[in-house]
Design goal:
- The protein is of the alpha+beta class.
- 2% of the residues are buried.
Length: 82
């Protein structure tokens, strides 16, 4: 799918028992799974990986580069000086 090629996949993560599964929500067919020792581990990783970042936090390098720079400057100015 051209959109995933240009923008990258948009994976969604779900835990099914002790198995973590992921699938691209754009419908390109990319996905996979990984087995963990416990259901708790799988659920923990699914919750951690399935969150959506705030705009600009992990912006693509080209399209939202100005936003990435603005966040970098803002975060740098908020740090206390030593």
């Amino acid at each position: 799918m051209l959109r995933c090629t240009l923008l990258g996949h948009r994976h969604r993560f779900h835990a099914h028992g002790a198995t973590l599964r992921w699938q691209c929500e754009r419908g390109c067919g990319d996905g996979g799974s990984k087995d963990y020792l416990t259901e708790r581990e799988a659920a923990m990783f699914a919750a951690a990986f399935d969150r959506r970042d705030q705009l600009g936090e992990r912006a693509p390098l080209i399209g939202l580069f100005p936003l990435r720079l603005a966040r970098l400057v803002r975060d740098h100015t908020r740090q206390p000086t030593r």
